[in-house]
Amino acid sequence: MGLWLLTAVLWAPLLLLLPVRWLVVPAVWLLGLVNVVHVGFFGYLADQFFLATALRTTPSETWEFVHTLPTLTVVMALLWLLGSGWLGWTLLRWPAQSLRRSPLLRVACIASALVWGGFALYGAKKGYDGWGYLNKLDRVYPLHIVKAYLLHRQINAALFYSPQLPVPLSQPAPVQTLVVVIGESASAQRWSLLGYGGGDTNAPLRDIPGIEAIRVMAQGSNTAAALPFMLTGLSANDSVQQQAPSFLDVAHQAGFKTFVLTNSRFFDSQEDFFVQTLRRSADVYTKVGDGGDDDALTEPLRRALQDPATHKLVVLHTFGSHPDVKHRYPADYAALEDAYDNSLHYSSALLAKWTQLLDQSSRPGSPSLLVYSSDHGLVLPPCSEGYRTGLSRSTLEVPLLVWRNPALVATAEAAGMPRFSAQERETPLHGNSMVAQLVRWGVGDGAVPLQHAPQALQFQGRDWQAIATADRCSLE
Ligand SMILES: [Zn+2]
């Protein structure tokens, strides 16, 4: 309430300036709509990841997103549009003369000048740098969006960094052919290999020798926040600040021929963190589809695996179970009762198919590894009406699957590949940045620590233990 009143007082003088009023009122009205929807989904105001997502989202994806909006959020958004629309319209038509004569507004103007002046003096005295200052100011609504914009710009300004590579790599590559499958919106809570009993979502994977699956923790609740961790092991901001290499950069440096095949749906007219990170060290970068069935990746994968290079890394960026989930599988995969389960079953069938392709293409005695994980999961019923992006425990618990061919099974232990514990099938001990760590191990970057203590696993500064025992929907 205090911050709300402060905000009202601080911005009140803007109402006196007629032309500014016509900019401020509609802007606050629209930004409010964005925030109401964002809070409905994630529980907090729009941030830099919202901006990154908005800029790469295609109209068809926006249309599917609209269909996953919870009823309550739609009602709140309509109430906001009508209520604040009426209020804004009233303010806009108020004659400037009578506003100037209002004693309440006069007091607000004086208070506002005093508070802004105080802020400025405090900042000057403490010698605040821009960021420290902004971190305080973003409590004054809607300055959080300015901070989000600056953070977003910081990523984009440093986008074309040269990654700091580990030189030289510490050992010869223990793996010759690596396939990394980047999943989308798959929650470990619906993986039958990890104990889900509602439908055999992983049936195609069950009897494949050399497969292991565990639960890992996603490190964000949407692609923009979570995917960077799988690529570099760090957030997008930390990646650009530390010039962190992605696993592709390291593999490329280790002499691997690198392929990136993507079926993700995005505007590729502008470079963003993901396009840049996936493309800068790729010998072959192909957008094979735009969010249609992920089977579109199969033939390009087959061709990549036939490439004569002795060491290869192929990255498949799938569209997985991205909402709206009922569009994420072909009609002949509608056997299970639940649409989300069907999409996971379809992804499992493709993983089985791709594992088989990798197995068949591996020369005798040549070690091959397939690694799969999802960027984040989804909010599932009963925490939501349907399946949607947002923050809940099922969003943070994602599957990680590895498949090793017989040649790698024979040599992996001696080469220091980590073994997963039985406990990890029940509860995550690692983040899904494990994907980057596994690939870096596979290409010979043994310097990367592969295991970290379970107590180090945190999400946004909170221990996983606290999250695991909190309410599964609100995480409170
Ligand atoms: Zn995602």
TrEMBL record:
Q: Which spans are transmembrane here?
A: 36-57, 69-92, 104-124
Gene3D superfamilies, per database record? Alkaline Phosphatase, subunit A
Q: Which Pfam families match?
A: Sulfatase (PF00884)
* Residue intervals of the Sulfatase N-terminal domain: 176-410
Coiled-coil region: none
GO (cellular component) term, any one: plasma membrane
Name a GO molecular-function annotation: phosphotransferase activity, phosphate group as acceptor
Specify the domain of life of the species encoding this protein: Bacteria
Q: Which PANTHER family match?
A: INNER MEMBRANE PROTEIN (PTHR30443), PHOSPHOETHANOLAMINE TRANSFERASE EPTC (PTHR30443:SF2)
Q: What is this protein called?
A: Sulfatase
Please report the organism this UniProt entry assigns to the protein.
Comamonas aquatica DA1877
